[in-house]
Amino acid sequence: MHPHVDVARTLATLVDQVGSIIVGKRVQVEDCVACLVAGGHLLIEDLPGVGKTTLAQALARSLGLQYARVQFTADMMPSDLLGASIWRRQDETFVFHPGPVFTQVLLADEINRAGPRTQGALLEAMEEAQVSVDAATRPLPRPFFVIATQNPRDQHGTYPLPQGQLDRFLMCITLGLPDRAAERALLAGEDRRAALQHLKPVLDADALQAAQQAVQQVHVSEALLDYVQALVAATREGPWFAAGLSPRGALALLRVARARALMAGRGHVVPEDVQSVFPQVLAHRLEPAPGSAFGARAQALALLQATPV
Questions:
Q1: What is the pLDDT of residues 276-288, one digit of tens each?
Q2: What is the pTM of this model?
Q3: Strand 136-139 to 130-133 pairing
């Protein structure tokens, strides 16, 4: 049996378990797992109360990883996130007290309610898995996965994330409201917080890191690269977006497509892998063309339909 099949079965078990808590949102749970396995970070843009925090908690419990939640507010300082050195009188030295960022799964809740300095404090952590405080660089635990939530941009009291920080998120998804059947299951079933207590780890940190390494071994053919380049060129030259996808964005698309292929038990990427994650990788990086009546996600879907495989 191909080793990718074993990894795919384990990841499917992870999706099933998290999906038992986040009812009716299997596609979004799969996107979250793909982002994690691809070694990136996830941004969730949605209204409060749709299950963003529960998703992060269910994932952390299912992986047996350390978890921390930080509520971002307008008066939050970078040291509240990263930690600070405090004078200890007994031996007359400064002792570093790590902040909540020193964890493995970090929920940065309502990140766009904090000011730019605090938002920016996450940049090095997300990109380098380390933080610099008081002229010292401190590594973060591995694996390190950030799930940030963002309120809709037109809500009062929000600070829009700069494009440079948005680009650090591998994917951006929305959970949306549940359909009628899923909402009925939520209303009639066990409380989600109580259900979280029953979750057991289905893989550990070592198995997760092995899966992340396996993603890098998933084969990408020349024909598939041609297709990806055609999509990227269309974002730059077509009528859909004001500016096209950067090389980093193109690499992000390929990383998540590889993760999707691995989750399907394949050792190679097919066009459907790229198509399934294209809007989630693209929409937060690009702005629709001036005068467009549609948002970035709708534009991405239109671009997919117009670009032959």
A1: 999 999 989 998 9
A2: 0.91
A3: antiparallel
